[in-house]
Design goal:
Rossmann fold, single chain, binds 5'-O-[hydroxy(phenylacetyl)phosphoryl]adenosine, 9-stranded mixed beta sheet, alpha/beta, GMP Synthetase, Chain A, domain 3, 4-stranded mixed beta sheet, 20 strands, globular
Length: 446
Amino acid sequence: MLFNPEMECLPRPQLRALQNKRLKEQVQYVYQRVPFYQQKLDRLGINPATFRGLEELPKLGFTKKADFRDTYPFGLFAVPQTEVARLHCSSGTTGKATVVGYTAEDLQTFAELVARSLAAAGCRPGMKVQNAYGYGLFTGGLGIHYGAEKLGLTVIPVSGGSTDRQLQLLQDFRPEIICATPSYAQVLAEEIQRRNIPLEALNLRYAVLGAEPWSEAIRSQVQQGLRVQATNIYGLSEIMGPGVSQEDVDERGTGSYIWEDHFYPEVVDKDTGEPVAEGEAGVLVLTTLTKRAMPILRYWTGDITHLTYEHSEKRTHVKMGPIRGRADDMLIIRGVNFFPTQVEDIISSLDHVSPYYQVVASRRGSLDEVEVHVEIEEALMRQLGLDALSDEVVQQHECLQHLRGMFAKKIKDTIGLSMKVTLLGFGQLPRSEGGKLSRVKDLRNL
Ligand code: DLL
């Protein structure tokens, strides 16, 4: 369903003209109101009055996470505090949090774009949504909440964690929709199976998953385990929160629509900052086109993806691929650039392994080492009559040794690195406690 058909289907020439007009306005607006941008544009010799819009956008350089830190807490705000209706912070960063603010108008836009996203995910007015994103400074909980209300859903604001309560509410209130991080949706799916809760006791149809990278293997696990159609929702606090882009339920696996009337996307080379060709992977850079409290020009998201402008039946907006990792998550192992999510692709292609894995980088002497821990499927554990796995147990089973060898070989063949593979029993790796789950440990202290 389209929430705003006029905007979602705006023919591309008109969409581009709208973006151009809004970008010029946004540049003038920040120049007048944010000393950080005024100084930056002056330094670059750009006069906002004669700025030519999209064609000149690459001249503006990038805004980076460090710029938020350097101007902490309110240095990038374009309105007086009295006009700021809400504050949020970005999650999981070291040092000072990144503070972001919204005017009442920004919150309206935020709600509309989340409403659009939920509609694309399959949600319809009148349905109930269990919102298992964390409420608080994190944008996930409240962001989804107001968008869901705007679409006309009944919101169950349970927040993240408390798995017993989540399962109880899923059975008692019978929501059609669950919104959660993919790693927490995996936990719910597993617990339902472990507790022998029949899927008929639930009424779920859709899962809207985001806030961390996930794979097709996780999609299958959640779709089967919760009997839902699962779509991707992407976003980040610095730009807005959830709902910057969203996958359509009927077009799963083909990318997520970026709501281009409000955000202008570019993908650039992570080393040179130069634009890459359509379809090529690079760092996603986003420019807000309508933000009032905290407009951001060319934000270096650090997220690696690609764009496709291929025409779709449903909407005219561009699609972005799944996030393949973050530019700063990239591990350089013995000189080879490697994204831990590449391991995920290999896992998806193998039988008998679960979608749970962890990549651990360490250093012995001056040599980098990578170890991949991966769980095998519950069914195989049962078949072999095992509760847990250890190296000794693997030694005793030829099929496990074969699986381990095949996995290590695939890693070497596709990534070009030798990694030690450790097979674990189902349930041996950490699970999400309701929020984001980190699958990478870098112990090298680089
Ligand atoms: O995670 C906003 C959000 C909430 C998105 C709920 C979706 C659902 P931050 O805490 O600022 O905001 O983290 C933003 O999370 O730069 C990505 O690296 C990652 N991320 C967000 N969504 C996805 C996704 C929220 N669908 C950072 N796939 C981003 C992969 C994602 N990574």
